[in-house]
Write a structure and sequence with these properties.
269 residues; mainly alpha; 67% helix; 0% strand
């Protein structure tokens, strides 16, 4: 559900879009400007709904592609800094853009785990993209909690593409990653495949049907051995473990805060 068309916001967005001498422009600025004009179709009646659907769909595809480019390759030190820098207030609220930036930094760890978990990455980048698109409806510094509250107020919290539904599924996948890292940090003998299976059993399996569970069962078999994984993320086991310990506590706290909010809001069980 897009924000009502505002001609002044629309004008400001397009006037503020900078083109360099070659006509190149920043992708996010262009997409934000697109968001501001797409809603003019609402004013034209439901007959052009298919045009709006096509435009928002393609905008979403570009956003997902942008996130994938931005999130690769995985950098453990950038990831640690992002989660350490994410500020939670006394209620656990956090600025949406800061949260999404931190998410970008950890989603690409799935690339290190092989193509088998591509379905998880695709789901995460898709939901992150939905939330980013919805950010265009709000001012700078808006919190995730305020965005979800607006969905609840508008009675659209259970609809696909809303911040509420997208955050729910993004949180579930983040919980999976959080538990996977926690399993790996239990000891050097824990293989990635075992960590992944244990994490899935504790998290996503409760939200997936039998078909998806079977797909995951096969997909997890493609993950690398622990030694290979640790070498890829930090050079060695000895370097990787301390680096992961820089990520895990803050990452875990943020995921927990989001979960508590969603439970309190009646969106998560």
């Amino acid at each position: 559900m897009s924000a009502p068309f505002d001609i002044h916001v629309c004008a400001a967005k397009w006037q503020g879009l900078n083109l360099d001498e070659k006509g190149d422009m920043v992708a996010e600025e262009f997409l934000s400007a697109c968001d501001s004009i797409i809603s003019i179709l609402d004013v034209m009646g439901s007959g052009l709904g298919m045009v709006k659907s096509d435009m928002t769909g393609n905008s979403g595809h570009i956003r997902r592609s942008k996130v994938e480019i931005m999130s690769a390759p995985f950098d453990i030190h950038v990831c640690a800094a992002k989660w350490q820098g994410l500020n939670l207030d006394e209620k656990g609220d956090m600025v949406a853009e800061e949260f999404l930036s931190a998410c970008d930094s950890i989603i690409s760890i799935l690339d290190v785990m092989g193509s088998g978990l591509g379905m998880v990455k695709s789901d995460m980048t898709g939901n992150s993209g939905h939330i980013r698109r919805n950010l265009a409806k709000f001012g700078p510094g808006v919190t995730l909690q305020a965005m979800v509250a607006k969905d609840i107020e508008n009675k659209v919290a259970t609809k696909d593409g809303t911040t509420a539904t997208s955050l729910l599924w993004l949180k579930r996948a983040l919980h999976f990653l959080d538990q996977l890292l926690a399993q790996l940090l239990k000891g050097a003998s824990v293989e990635v495949i075992d960590a992944g299976r244990a994490a899935y059993a504790d998290t996503l399996t409760h939200h997936h049907g039998m078909v998806v569970r079977q797909v995951f069962k096969v997909a997890i078999m493609a993950v690398p051995h622990r030694a290979t994984f640790m070498e890829k993320i930090a050079g060695s086991e000895e370097k990787a473990v301390p680096a992961l310990l820089e990520v895990s506590p803050n990452f875990s706290a943020a995921v927990s805060a989001v979960n508590q909010f969603l439970v309190a809001a009646g969106l998560e069980k």
